[in-house]
Design a protein that fits this description.
81 residues, alpha+beta, 2 helices, globular, disordered C terminus
C-alpha cells in the first residue's frame, strides 16, 4: 500500500472516531487532515485543497467534510472553486 493511501486510511479512521466532537463546532466545513489531526477547517473543498497543497507539497493529506455521514474523500483531485 502506498504512503498516500495509508495516510488517507489512518485519517479516515481517526475522523470517524472523532466525528461527534467535530460536528459540534465545524458542521458542514471541510477539514484538512494529516497525521490523524485536523490541520484546518474551510468553507469549500477548493479552499481546503489549495491550502493543503500549499502547506503539504508532498500531497500527503486528506480532506473530509464534517457531516453526519462521512464520505471518504481521500485526496481531492478536483477542479477547485
Amino acid at each position: 500500500m502506498d504512503r498516500l493511501q495509508v495516510e488517507i486510511d489512518r485519517n479516515y479512521d481517526w475522523f470517524q472516531r472523532n466525528l461527534k466532537q467535530l460536528l459540534a463546532s465545524h458542521s458542514g466545513e471541510f477539514a484538512v487532515l494529516r497525521d490523524q489531526s485536523v490541520q484546518g477547517y474551510f468553507e469549500s473543498p477548493g479552499e481546503a485543497f489549495r491550502t493543503a497543497l500549499a502547506k503539504f507539497p508532498d500531497r500527503i493529506f486528506s480532506i473530509q467534510q464534517v457531516v453526519d455521514e462521512p464520505l471518504d474523500l481521500g485526496f481531492l483531485s478536483l477542479a477547485v472553486d
